[in-house]
């Protein structure tokens, strides 16, 4: 459940209505006598108007999941409901999609990593392709394609061929084509993986703009945590065909021990000497970072050092994690730590060993943070 006034509904377009729901989704591939369970009972709930990110290592089942959502891949069991329609029931038994499924699918846009444009067709003709399949007249197709190209910022490239475009421009064409059937849902499988960081940012910005302007729900697969941080309202982590964690970014942050939260907001930093207490503080929307830390310092008259932080502003509120250091051992800091907890913050105290180096393990990113943070 989203927290009222919290960061859960980062985008004004998010509603509580589910747009994509999978229940007990399972996919077993059988090839040459071997069985691979690519999906193992996946329950996914994507709300209307949200950008939902699915992350996980290679082979975790991410692509299989997204291909099952539009029934490009037939699930072995379980159901898929999109826009209130049970696609698994529409699919029927035969290998070919029936008319009902084809119609439902035309309202689900799909964007691919390698764009999948036809090189012999102009940009405009690529965008018109799904409109031809939908049976629109030539005039209507042309009007709609030009409107979509304008929407993705490529109005001047209508007559160009894919070979004359940059990667980012090709992906814009891919997105325009995906929008041809006026979808409510856009699926994206690693749509920015083939692009450089700057182009990635501009494509993500476009997806977010479309999400906001058109109220489009976006389900995207990525292996980059930055993508999740930049545009996702919610995220799920997949492992071995299962969803092992899911929720809004603030829900994940509020979950002690969340692997996704730790990867989204990694903090490092070692204590500056012995007899220090190191505390990781998680902010998930309701408390503001600056006042809490300075209040703590003023109230107890202690110097607080920030060892590391991974913070972001979501919907005008600071979320993330911060590692701070208080002078003195843990026993001397019980009261200030209690103060932090009273502010509604999630507080984890690093194990208080005898020596500084024993208190906190030092992951690689900590070094970089220390170099910046420490004199
Ligand atoms: N058509 C297929 N036939 C047999 N096995 C398959 C098929 N497609 C996928 N698999 C297997 O299913 C598992 C999940 O694959 P999937 O492509 O969904 O992973 P992924 O999370 O998208 O990985 P990546 O990040 O590398 O794209 C893998 O073990 C893969 O080998
Ligand atoms: Mg994949």
Overall geometry comes to elongated
Q: How much β-strand is present in the residues? A: 25-35%
Q: How many structural domains does the protein architecture include?
A: 2
Task: Please give the order of strands in the largest beta sheet.
Answer: 6-7-8-3-9-10
Structural class of the secondary structure composition?
alpha/beta
CATH architecture of the largest domain: 3-Layer(aba) Sandwich
| Major beta-sheet overview | 6 strands, mixed
Gyration radius (Cα, Å) is 24 Å
Mean pLDDT: 86
CATH homologous superfamily descriptor of the largest domain: P-loop containing nucleotide triphosphate hydrolases
- Low-pLDDT stretches: 1-10, 353-375
Reading off the top of the CATH hierarchy, the class of the largest domain is best stated as: Alpha Beta
- According to CATH, what is the topology of the largest domain? Rossmann fold
**What's the SSE pattern?**
EEEHEEHHEHHHEHEHEEHHEHEEHEHH
Report the span from N to C terminus: 43 Å
Question: What is the percent of helical residues?
Answer: 25-40%
Which compounds are bound in this model? adenosine-5'-triphosphate, magnesium ion
Count of individual beta strands: 14
